[in-house]
Design brief:
Layout (H helix, E strand, L loop, with lengths): L2 H8 L7 H21 L5 E14 L6 E17 L2 E10 L8 H4 L5 H12 L6 E8 L10 H10 L1 E2 L2 E2 L2 H9 L7 H14 L1 H4 E6 L3 H23 L11 E2 L2 E2 L3 H4 L10 E3 L17 E2 L1 H9 L1 H9 L2 E3 L4 H18 L24
Length: 358
C-alpha cells in the first residue's frame, strides 16, 4: 500500500460498535478513491492542522478590538510554483460537479475570506484556498444475489479484493448473505474509482484585496455586535433555526421551556473551543468561524453554547464522520509520498500580526 494511503487508513481508529464498523468502512472506501484521484497532483506541504489567532482590526482606522481575537485552524498550508495556498477539506452530501450551487456559494463564503484574511494579518498573502470536497456515498450495504454469492464462496474475493478469513467466515455464517463492512468498503472503493468526479471535487477559491477588506470590516462589526449582545443580554431567538439539516437544534427543548440547563441533559464544556488545542483559557474572548456562524444563526443558541458554555452529549452522524475523515486526510497530506519528495520548509514568520491597508 502506498505510504500516504497507509498513513490515512492507520489514522482511523478501530471500531467499537456496529455503527463504527460501517462508518469506518465508509471512510476507508472513500480514502482509496481519494488517493487514486489526487495522488498525482503535486503540492508542497508546509503545515497541516496549523492553529492561528489574530487581532480583529478595523481596516478603516487600524484600531484593534479590545474584546475579541479571531482564531481557528488551517487544515493545511501548501504551495505550488512558489505560490502559497490554504487547504480546506469538506465532506458533504451535495452535488460537487463543476458549476453546481456548492461551488457558486463559495464566492461569498465567510470561512474562506476569514482564513485568507488571517494569513494576511500574520504577514503572508496567499494566492487562494484549495477547496477539497468529498461527497459522502449514497450506496449502502446490500444483500448479494445468487451469482455474486457463489462467486464469493468460490474465490474468497469481492469487487476485486481478497477477503480476510474473518470476513469470509462472517459472510458465510450470514444466512441472508449481506455485505460485511469489509465487503462494503471494497464495493465503495471500486465505485469511487469508476465515478471519481461524482465523489471528489477541487477548486482554487480566490479573493481580491478589496473583498478581504470588506470582510475585515464585517468581522469588526460582528465583533462589536457580539460584545453588545452579551453586555445587554440580547438573546433574541430565531425560530427558523430550530430545525436545520434535518434535525432539531440541540437546545430546542431548553429554548422552548421543556428542559433546564441543570436537567442532566446538558453538560458543561471544559473549553468553549475544543477544536483549538493550543488555546490555554476558556475561550470567551475568541471568535472562531463556528462561533460567528452560531451568532449569525441564532443569538439564543450563541448564549447557550458560548455564554453558558453548555452542550448535549449527542453528536450528529455527519459531525462524527466528518471528524473521523478529517483526521485521516490530515495524515494523508502530512505523509511523504515515498518517492523522495519532502515537505517544504516554512519560510514565513507567522507570529507577527500585520494590518492590511484600506
Amino acid at each position: 500500500m502506498h505510504p500516504k494511503l497507509a498513513a490515512a487508513c492507520a489514522a482511523i481508529p478501530e471500531p467499537q460498535t456496529d455503527d463504527d464498523e460501517l462508518r469506518i468502512a465508509t471512510a476507508r472506501g472513500l480514502l482509496h478513491g481519494y488517493h487514486a484521484r489526487w495522488i498525482n497532483e503535486e503540492w508542497a506541504v508546509e503545515a497541516v492542522e496549523r492553529e492561528f489567532a489574530v487581532p480583529i482590526v478595523n481596516p478603516a482606522t487600524h484600531r484593534r478590538s479590545l474584546n475579541f481575537v479571531h482564531a481557528g485552524k488551517f487544515d493545511g498550508l501548501i504551495a505550488r510554483n512558489g505560490d502559497g495556498y490554504l487547504l480546506e477539506h469538506k465532506t458533504c452530501s451535495e452535488d460537487v460537479s463543476p458549476g453546481s450551487p456548492y461551488w457558486r456559494r463559495l464566492a461569498i463564503d465567510a470561512q474562506v475570506s476569514g482564513y485568507l484574511l488571517a494569513s494576511w494579518l500574520l504577514g503572508r498573502k496567499l494566492t487562494g484556498v484549495l477547496y477539497d470536497v468529498i461527497r459522502k456515498p449514497e450506496i449502502r450495504p446490500k444483500k448479494l444475489g445468487l451469482a455474486d454469492t457463489a462467486a464469493v464462496r468460490r474465490t474468497s474475493q469481492y469487487c476485486g479484493r481478497m477477503l480476510s478469513p474473518e470476513t469470509f467466515q462472517r459472510f458465510l455464517l450470514d444466512k441472508e448473505y449481506r455485505e460485511t463492512p469489509e465487503m462494503f468498503e471494497a464495493r465503495l472503493a471500486q465505485d469511487t474509482l469508476e465515478r471519481s468526479d461524482w465523489y471528489f471535487g477541487r477548486q482554487v477559491i480566490t479573493r481580491l484585496d478589496r473583498e478581504l477588506l470588506t470582510y475585515a470590516q464585517e468581522l469588526w462589526q460582528t465583533a462589536q455586535d457580539v460584545h453588545r449582545a452579551m453586555a445587554t443580554e440580547d438573546r433574541r431567538r430565531n425560530a427558523g433555526a430550530c430545525y436545520l439539516f434535518h434535525r432539531p437544534c440541540e437546545y430546542l427543548d431548553l429554548c422552548a421551556g421543556h428542559a433546564r440547563p441543570e436537567s442532566g441533559r446538558f453538560i458543561s464544556l471544559p473549553t468553549l473551543h475544543p477544536e483549538l488545542e493550543e488555546l490555554h483559557h476558556d475561550g470567551s474572548r475568541v471568535l472562531t468561524h463556528t462561533r460567528l456562524s452560531t451568532f449569525a444563526l441564532c443569538r439564543r443558541k450563541h448564549h447557550y453554547r458560548y455564554g453558558l458554555g453548555i452542550s448535549t452529549a449527542d453528536t450528529s452522524e455527519a459531525l462524527t464522520f466528518g471528524s473521523l475523515f478529517h483526521e485521516a486526510l490530515a495524515a494523508w497530506w502530512q505523509t511523504e509520498s515515498g518517492d523522495g519528495s519532502r515537505e517544504a520548509p516554512e519560510a514565513h514568520d507567522r507570529d507577527r500580526a500585520h494590518t492590511p491597508a484600506a
